[in-house]
Write a structure and sequence with these properties.
By secondary structure, the chain is of the alpha/beta class. The protein has eleven helices and 13 strands.
Length: 325
């Protein structure tokens, strides 16, 4: 099978508005993280399932080997600014799992542990699985996410009940009897609606990200943030990215359209451009169409990357400043 090239993120964040908890994941650096990993692997609640309570040199060799594997990524897990655990994500068809279960390109797996004993039993596994799944679906373009925990790991029993994963039954692996769970991209976001990111920390540049199937509450929260942007009464440029199956409910769409109609004069006055990050040829044609240019109160400009969008936003705003000087 052809190796799948992975876009390796330095770090990634995921928040739960209901619990107010925030997950941050970042790549393992052995110079920085090994001693913590060594301590965790010798904790009884971790050693029981991971079986990596090895000597210092043996464990170091294990992690060096794992980091050299191009089909997987190793992450440290931080919740609310406390480093509590470790995770691995991997392209499943290139992993040993392919020897025991029929897989396809686009299947990605997750292994995780909570190493800090005082962080166990607090429901963090749910946030971690949500965050890592979101990372795989949005950054690695996964089609399906798999987990194969030891059937005795009670903390992951919520995968089916709470997160919408399908229980595919038991899977006999050399070191354990696992329960195999899976969820598709579409099913994940239907069960776990994501937040719309509306970052106004860098106004006059506003960064927006629209995930798959945001909840009506998330749409209402986004609308309130847009109100705050317009209250500045200053020119701004918006940079927007969209997940591949982004769509609102009918109720949320009506709210969005009503807000847009009400604020169209202000949008025409203050929004200098909407830079849509996309390489989709149909979307580019739509954004460049005469109908779009006539119907929108601001320019909608396709750009191929977030870096180019940021550069163009600064050029637009600098031109605005020179014009008004």
């Amino acid at each position: 099978m052809e190796p799948r090239l992975m876009f390796k993120q330095a770090h990634y964040s995921y928040s739960c508005r209901q619990s107010k908890n925030h997950l941050r994941i970042y790549h393992v650096d052995l110079d920085r993280d090994f001693e913590k990993l060594f301590t965790w692997m010798h904790q009884p609640h971790v050693a029981k399932f991971w079986q990596l309570n090895l000597s210092h040199n043996e464990l170091l060799a294990h992690f060096k080997s794992a980091l050299a594997m191009s089909h997987q990524e190793l992450f440290m897990l931080e919740i609310n600014q406390q480093i509590i655990g470790y995770a691995e994500t991997y392209h499943a068809p290139e992993d040993r799992l392919a020897q025991f279960y029929q897989l396809q390109v686009g299947d990605f797996g997750i292994h995780l542990l909570i190493g800090e004993k005082n962080a166990t039993g607090k429901g963090h596994s749910s946030l971690i699985v949500r965050g890592l799944s979101d990372y795989l679906f949005t950054q690695q373009m996964a089609e399906r996410v798999l987990l194969e925990p030891n059937k005795e790991v009670a903390a992951l029993n919520m995968l089916e009940r709470k997160l919408g994963f399908s229980n595919l039954g038991y899977l006999k692996l050399p070191e354990k009897m696992a329960t195999l769970y899976a969820i598709t991209h579409q099913d994940f976001y239907r069960h776990n609606p994501s937040e719309i990111i509306c970052d106004i920390s860098s106004v006059p540049i506003v960064r927006l990200h629209f995930p798959s199937f945001p909840s009506d509450d998330a749409v209402n929260c986004w609308i309130r943030k847009l109100d705050n942007i317009l209250l500045h009464h200053e020119p701004y440029v918006a940079i927007s990215t969209f997940d591949r199956e982004y769509q609102f409910s009918q109720t949320a769409r009506k709210v969005e359209m009503a807000w847009f109609k009400q604020h169209k004069p202000l949008l025409a006055k203050y929004c200098r451009a909407m830079l849509r990050v996309t390489t989709d040829t149909e979307m580019i044609a739509k954004l460049n169409s005469s109908a779009m240019k006539k119907g929108m109160p601001f320019r909608c400009i396709p750009v191929s990357s977030q870096e180019l969008a940021m550069r163009q936003a600064k050029l637009i705003l600098n031109k605005e400043r020179r014009t008004n000087a």
